[in-house]
Amino acid sequence: MQRGSDLGSCLSWSTWQVGSRTQWNPVSQLDIGVDVLYSKLNTEFSGSNSTRLIGFFAPGKQFGLSISDQDVWSVMFRVQRNFWP
Q1: Predicted local distance difference test score (pLDDT) of residue 84
Q2: Which of 75, 77, 67 is closest to 36 using CA atoms?
Q3: Where exactly are the structural domains of the chain?
Q4: Integer Cα distance of 18 and 74 in angstroms
């Protein structure tokens, strides 16, 4: 388990996102869409070694909240029918 003084470099981080949205209107008042978003979190704790903030230990296992680089893909599919003009 890391000590609080070791977490000072955790304050250096960056994040970025890129995404796209496509919408199709096959008939009047009907929308079909797909949103795709990629998010990236860069921390000072890159690689396979991550820092545990809250740790619970068992023989051979370690549980807790970790800080490391993260990649997230998000996809949303939407169908919307409008009944009110």
Answers
A1: 82
A2: 75
A3: 4-81
A4: 11
